[in-house]
Amino acid sequence: MDRYELISRYLINFIRQEVCKTGLSKVVIGLSGGIDSAVVAVLAYRALNNNLLCIKMPSQHSSQSSLDDAEELCRIFKLQSETHSIEPMLRVYQTPDMSPLRIGNLSARLRMVTLFDISAREAALVLGTSNKSELMLGYGTLYGDLASALNPIGDLYKTEVFELAHYLGIPSSIINKPPSADLWAGQSDEAEIGYPYSELDHVLKCYVEERHTREEMIQDGKNPKLVDMIINRIYKNQFKRRMPLIAKLTSRTVNHDFNYPRDITL
User: Fold this and answer.
1) Max Cα-Cα span within the chain
2) With a cut of 70, which residues of the chain have pLDDT below it?
3) Which of 44, 128, 141, 240 could be cross-linked to 151 through a Cys-Cys bond (beta carbons 3.0 to 4.6 Å apart)?
4) Is the pTM of this model over 0.85?
């Protein structure tokens, strides 16, 4: 069996089973026109059919091509969708002195506010779309795009998401464009991070999966600046990968020693 056929089957079952455990039957997803949300949307559709609702949330900073790509995906895979612009909310709060980074973070959080409100309306779970490369590097907005109830692709590196997208038949217009969160005009993930995902993932896999030390990776010929940047970001952004840290005062503290698997039965 092809590796990505196996991964696809596993993730489809993951979505179906984990949604069922909550007693709900629907999911919602923010559809940006990018590859990560496209992959999650197609997996969710195959898992739940019409119990998926895709939400497009453009702002005045969104590119038309991203909206067109999201529309094309919905048309090809017959996905149910709604459009809810965050532009009015963003204009109320945005001030002339705000940096692109602040605008981007605010946009991500306004989108997640919108998505969670619609999930309440629909009695649905919010699906996350952050991949493992982003999670390890902390490349995401806390309580923005990092927020979700379930994340099917959080253990897939970005380069693996591209491979899975090919297998799933995601349109080439989405696969071939430079990765971008589309938070401001001309924004590029790889330009912002400073390296292409092919290089980032190679070092990430060596460090995270194969557990090579910094010295071993440099001796193996890897770029010392890239290695140091990745290791620094992994540790610096640990707080983004966990629930808020609770000060321990009792014998059983949430997220310390009061942890039960979510599929426990009473």
Assistant:
1) 55
2) 1, 183-186, 259-266
3) 128
4) yes
